[in-house]
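Lecture 7, part B: from sequences to assemblies.

Below are the input chains for today's worked example.
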Amino acid sequence: MSLLHWAVLSPFLLAIIVPILYKLFRQIHTGWFVLILPILLFTYFSRFISLTKQGDIIMESATWIPSLGIHVDFYIDGLGLLFALLITGIGSLVVLYSIFYLSKEKEKLNQFYVFLLLFMGAMLGVVLSDNLIVLYSFWEFTSLSSFLLIGYWNERERSRYGAQKSLLITVLGGLSLLGGIILLSIMGNTFSIRELIAQSGELMDHSLFIPALLLVLLGAFTKSAQFPFHIWLPDAMEAPTPVSAYLHSATMVKAGIYLVARLSPVFAESGLWFWLVSIAGLITLFWGSFSAIKQTDLKGILAFSTISQLGLIMSLLGLGAAALHYESFGENIYLAATVAAVFHLINHATFKGSLFMVAGIIDHETGTRDIRKLGGLMQVMPITFTVAVIGAFSMAGLPPFNGFLSKEMFLASMVNVLELNIFNMETWGVLFPVAAWVASVFTFIYSMIVVLKPFTGKLQLQLLDKRPHEAPVGMLISPIILASLVIVFGIFPNLLSSRIIEPAVASIQPSLAGPDFQVHIAFWHGFKPEVWMTVGIIAFGILLYKTLPKWQKITRWIPERISLNALYDNGVRGLDRSASSVMKFLMTGYIRTYLLSIFLFFILSLGFTLYWKDAFKLDTGNFARIGLYELILAAIIVIGSIAILFARSRLTSIIILGAVGYTISLFFVLLRAPDLALTQLVIETISVSLFLLCFFHLPLMASRKEERMTFKLNNALISIGVGVIVTLIALSAHSNKLFDSISNYYLENAYKEAGGKNVVNVILVDFRGLDTMFEITVLSIAALGIFAMIKLRLTGRKDKS
Amino acid sequence: MKQNDLILQTVTKVAAFVILLFAVAIFLGGHYSPGGGFVGGLMTSAAIVLLLLAFDIKTVTGILPIDYKLMIGSGLLISSLTVAGGLAFGVPLMTHVYHYVDLPLLGHISLHTAVLFDLGVYLVVVGVTMTIIQTIGESE
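Predicted structure of the full complex, as structure tokens:
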């Protein structure tokens, strides 16, 4: 365990303590305690900037399951560090913001911060682990903690709906990612990302390469809300605004981006990767920006804008991958796409984070987020307005903000696609810059909606729940910091380029970004096509924004009931319905039905296996001699079993059953197994008394007083079948011995290794002690289950009477 | 269950003690002769069940005011701590340590961490059986 391990573990440890702190210091907002951790982590991680700048990689290992090749290896390179800084940096600001956003009187703060810390730790684990299985575990942990955060206001129906939707979709992707990871490990014989990258050349030719690629991409696309899996993100907006700012714009949704970037060196040589990633990204970019315009909820607009921006980054990563696939073409052009992706990732975190916080402030101070009700807030909230202008203009891609720079680089990369004149690129490749341009126009429009609709126009007080006023200072700190970053990164972009962007790009494309690779982001780069495209975007954007009411109806041309959301809803409903119909068929409420199906399955599956494996060979040579005592006991058991069938009352049959059990324990005595005999005797005693207790309390069946059961051929056949199968298995197991008996090992080693002479007990507590551990756990659960069931039923009855 | 069976009650008073003592004996001797936590626990519950049958539940809870659910929990805790204990010394899970000592009166006996694990099993078994029997017996 190194310091790095503790750093990843620390949020989880703090999560354990938070509820205690919450209870102890009720008068202090719990957020203050939580705030310390991300700040500490941020300073800790920023120490690595100088190391990764030189191309160093920090690697710390710890073993977890060495026999399966699963190690908790964390490593920091440019890409991992960039994400770690985002997670802890934005995390600090979000926690600070949440202290003022969530009231300590009304909210369940302990739960909120526990979930948030779990999420922070999981996210750090995702971006820092080298082992794919460890990465996957943390990955699913982010889904779970985001589920809890989205459903934080679990009394609201929409919150529960959104939480379930995000969980279903992201976990579906997570499972597919797991499949991809397993295929990768089969191909490369390792779970380590670095080792997989090292052998990427050989992996290409493997037959499992394409399936692995598709499965991994499905995981990344669901997480990063790419079309058509984006539908969960708008519903996730039911979470408290700090959560939306953190998870749904800055960190979790970027996990998919991270995964694509991280595994680019493994997959990027395949053309399929380039096509899938860039086209999925472009469609998402276009569809997200198009859908954002028809939203009326401020957070809804931001959600769709996040979807579209994620698509933008994704498409840039795809184009960057083209550099590896189409080696002969000017590499720097495609490397530029990756640079743009990384740069925009940072920019998006800053401007979208501040915009979400602005939306939260508006919601908090006016009581609504509906842009149809809002207006004229400029006069009452000047600071918030300023932050909103900076964020939105950066999102729209206007100078001098950082969004402008990365948008220019994005447009430049899209234009560069035209130079890639292979396949049908000359014809179809035109679609890349065209789609990018159209999407950018929409982006401009929704950015304007975000800032102009709530803040300009007339203030309609009668529509608002509260009388609006400027937000408290504490709530403004975080958005102001983010907005200043937007400006600083916009004016001095090269603050980032050598420290953060170069190392990150070098880890995404190690083979291309050599030692002399340098990023220089220029503010003005001459009259290139992208500048004219930006001019066009602004001109068309203003024109379309002015005429918005006239054409906005077109955006609603797809009716709700054939949308992807409806597809999802119908799917979930259909699943519910078919599950309940299967339940109704199987769960009749009669134990007889359950036993019938269990026994039928037992007979068929085992009978078939015996037949299939030809296991009927009976070897009678090894049988023990049957003596007088055994015969007598066997006779007693047979007679007892038959007598049960003819018993006239429940009590009689229970007692006869007990007698059969005692006789069996006598068998153990004869066969010199005192432990078994002892256990069987006591168990029999206790179970008979338990049965008696149960039946004592059962109501007498009023109509047919303890009547004998009628003979049913089906039941008889099934019970005879079970008996025959069990006998056959016993005989067959005795006759076909594939391996030597293990008992000699235990006999030899019980005293030597475990210092015990009673082999049975040594096996129970030592050799197979973990089995015992889990058995007693299961027993405890069963006992508590019975307790809860009976006690709950009793209280229910009391309520009725 | 309300019962009034004089012979059963008189015999039980003696027999329950004998059974309990026997249960403790086979629990402690488990590693060397037939017995152990599982059987010992069952035997103990058998003694308590005998008491329950002879007297009613109220009387027995008066004599043995034990929360059996708590007993399950403590048993699980003891066992899992023994399982995890090895980790504190840098050895794999479930590693046991034993040592022989000679004590006056008792003679040559073994001190074994396995008995701690077994104690947990014992408590869980008693707790589980008694929880089940008590809840079913009480629900009228």
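Note for the exam: The two ends of chain A are 60 Å apart (CA to CA). Keep this in mind when comparing with the next example.
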